[in-house]
Amino acid sequence: xxxxxxxxxxxxxxxxxxxxxxxxxxxxxxxxxxxxxxxxxxxxxxxxxxxxxxxxxxxxxxxxxxxxxxxxxxxxxxxxxxxxxxxxxxxxxxxxxxxxxxxxxxxxxxxxxxxxxxxxxxxxxxxxxxxxxxxxxxxxxxxxxxxxxxxxxxxxxxxxxxxxxxxxxxxxxxxxxxxxxxxxxxxxxxxxxxxxxxxxxxxxxxxxxxxxxxxxxxxxxxxxxxxxxxxxxxxxxxxxxxxxxxxxxxxxxxxxxx
Length: 258
Hints:
This protein has helices spanning 27-30, 51-57, 75-83, 128-149, 173-177, 181-185, 196-212; strands at 36-41, 46-49, 95-100, 106-116, 119-126, 154-158, 166-169, 216-223, 229-240, 246-255. By secondary structure, it is α+β, with helices and mostly antiparallel strands. 27% of the residues lie in helices and 29% in strands.
């Protein structure tokens, strides 16, 4: 999830002033940079930082050990990150860590590092809101997943091919087909479960609906792996690219009540 938050930082984001060469006299320059910049020892002690770094963690950082501010649950990952900081001007891949700021609040910072002599130069970017939004979305998706899996029906998304190759299927598939979601997703031929006498009619009616972007409702028979034939109702529709091409089909299959 976190590797997609921001693109890697460009090398030497300060132009003519690099953190590797920064000294006390350069700090007015690095204070103009909108993200946190720190120069620390291999042991993590901050020797030079800009004002944005102090603002991010709500405390003066100079002479503090940056690792002491890392959330305890991220401390092992931080130590590993420090151990493999590159010994060149090449930037390491950015990683995100939780830090505890001066108010005791958690702040998510994306950290990019490079090594110069005995120092490590880092940029710190606040991605707290992005992480929170992502976590909220994931929680919402889990809630929706739990809801779908609790339905006495099979919710699906599939490709528009003769096999109706499944890309997503809810847990309700077991009661209808005798196959688990994992079995249906692993190249299983869902179309083979449709009764042979109904198979061509199902395909034709789905294609007709896709051509007009209509919602389709079908009634047909499914033959489960247990050999039981079940009459089902399926409602679905296509989803399309911006150019109008069919990207796939999504819908729901449930037992027919009549």
